[in-house]
Design goal:
This protein has 479 residues and is of the alpha/beta class. It has helices spanning 22-25, 38-45, 55-58, 66-74, 78-88, 92-98, 110-113, 121-135, 158-169, 186-189, 198-210, 227-233, 262-274, 279-282, 300-311, 332-341, 407-410, 443-446, 451-478, and strands at residues 150-154, 173-177, 214-216, 236-239, 245-246, 259-261, 292-296, 316-320, 344-346, 349-355, 362-373, 379-383, 389-392, 395-398, 402-403, 438-440.
Length: 479
């Protein structure tokens, strides 16, 4: 490489890591992209233009120092690149895999705007951190000194774990309560292995345990322990439950067997990959093998479902979405991957009901067209009269998004203030709720959103808690 390590975008074409063939991908749940070789990662990082105002960084919710760690990677200074990426992001190896880079950092890359193809930021980020784990650069959590304060975190998803990491590194005593038998939340049970292989998540969980984070698993707050008890036990509490209640579908036949929720379907599949006993999968209820599958929805969860169904050996997989491809909320990269693997997209289609007697046999579909823009500026889909038809199906998966559970009633805490959408009200910068010492982050505040936003919220809440603890210590010392 010449002395000039960067700005190679005019000479070096954009190159993603090699993608496994669609035929090979359909056979297993392994990640679809191979790793970069060292020289390829350095070469692709060298395409960065090191622009004065890095839009990639400003459009990243964590404001990762992307141009800096790309430059370090191009120079072969990988350990420093890892340290820089870890400084602003608790889980760079996870964001590198599952962030919709096409909508965030890469979608705002200056050289992409100039027609040279974006820098492959996500793939380089993944490569840096995977290398760090292999080389032993990922240091265990070892606080310089233990602190007396204790924080209870409800929810072991990315928001809760990001906060746990920062608090524990500062010496705070941290206990995480979660309803599942493994930590990680949707990272563990919601996202399929072909996007995020589970050892990647389990490795982080082990790091937290070895660093002194206490996990109380299989614990339903409101049943196994009350919210009041958790508040009593800790100096501060963080609500990071996520949103797990599936949006429902009405219409004739909506209650027929064979119509299942996306999260149930994905969780069963992920549990099988861990080797768990999953009766609903073994019975065929949550298994797409040899079935005609129809997935309803157009977000990333719908993409996870259609691609999971393909791997389970479905006869056919169709995705119904009421708008067109350009107006789909899910990642365009995921749509392309799904199409390559054999998924058929039925655009401008909406369900009106379901057919079947003892079990679902089809979805009654009406064709749509895009009319006038709604309040958000997106064209509103409207039905085309007389366009109804039936799409045959043996299993129908509802992937219409998620809503918050009614926490004030579930936790017998009516004083916990929520919005009209049921999300918890919290301050924008500190994430404090109106309840003293109670904070809230992630999807339970934002509504269904991205992992990267939950990580940002968790880190900010941890900073706010530490500031409060330090303030309290200083006032005690002054007395």
């Amino acid at each position: 490489m010449s002395k000039q390590k960067m700005l190679k975008f005019t000479d070096v074409p954009r190159l993603m890591p090699e993608k496994r063939t669609a035929e090979a991908r359909r056979e297993d749940f392994n990640e679809i992209y191979r790793e970069y070789a060292d020289e390829k990662a350095a070469e692709q990082a060298s395409r960065c233009s090191q622009c004065g105002v890095p839009y990639c960084q400003s459009h990243c919710p964590l404001h990762n120092n992307i141009p800096d760690w790309l430059k370090l990677t191009a120079e072969g200074r990988l350990q420093e690149a890892y340290q820089m990426s870890q400084a602003t992001n608790t889980f760079p190896e996870i964001c590198g895999r599952i962030c919709p880079q096409d909508r965030l950092c890469e979608g705002n890359c200056v050289i992409e705007q100039s027609g040279h193809g974006t820098v492959t930021i996500g793939s380089v980020e993944k490569y840096i951190t995977d290398t760090a784990w292999e080389e032993g650069w990922v240091e265990p959590i070892r606080p310089h000194a233990e602190r007396p304060e204790s924080v209870g975190i409800i929810g072991a998803g990315p928001g809760g774990l990001a906060a746990a990491d920062m608090l524990r590194r500062a010496g705070v005593q941290v206990t995480v309560y979660d309803r599942y038998d493994r930590a990680g939340g949707l990272l563990t049970y919601g996202i399929p292995g072909f996007k995020l292989e589970k050892p990647v998540v389990m490795r982080r969980n082990k790091q937290f345990e070895e660093g002194g984070v206490q996990f109380v698993l299989n614990c339903n707050v409101g049943e196994d322990i009350s919210f009041a008890e958790i508040r009593e036990k800790h100096d501060a509490v963080l609500i990071a439950t996520g949103v797990y209640k599936s949006r429902d579908l009405g219409g004739p036949g909506a209650g027929l067997p064979g119509i299942v929720r996306a999260l149930d379907f994905l969780t069963a599949s992920n549990r099988k990959s861990f080797g768990d006993e999953v009766p609903e999968f073994d019975s065929g209820e949550l298994n797409a093998k040899d079935k005609r599958v129809v997935v309803i929805g157009g977000g990333d969860t719908a993409m996870d479902c259609v691609r999971t169904a393909i791997r389970q050996g479905a006869t056919s997989v169709k995705c119904l979405y009421r708008r067109d491809r350009a107006n789909m909320p899910g990642s365009q990269r995921e749509v392309q991957n799904a199409e390559e693997e054999g998924v058929e997209f039925v655009w401008l289609s909406a369900p009106k009901g379901f057919t079947g007697d003892d079990a679902v046999t089809g979805v009654k579909v009406v064709k749509m067209r895009l009319g006038a823009p709604d309040a958000t500026g997106r064209q509103f889909p409207e039905e085309i009269p007389g366009s109804e038809y039936t799409e045959d199906a043996d299993i129908v998966i509802k992937a219409l998004g998620f809503e918050p559970e009614a926490l004030p009633s579930l936790w017998n805490t009516p004083e916990l203030e929520v919005t009209r959408w049921g999300t918890v009200k919290a301050k924008f910068n500190t994430h404090e709720t109106d309840l003293p010492g109670v904070y809230a982050v992630g999807d339970i505040v934002r509504g269904a959103s991205l992992v990267v936003w939950a990580i940002r919220d968790g880190r900010e809440a941890a900073e706010a808690m530490l500031a409060k603890f330090n303030e309290a210590s200083a006032s005690v010392a002054a007395e």
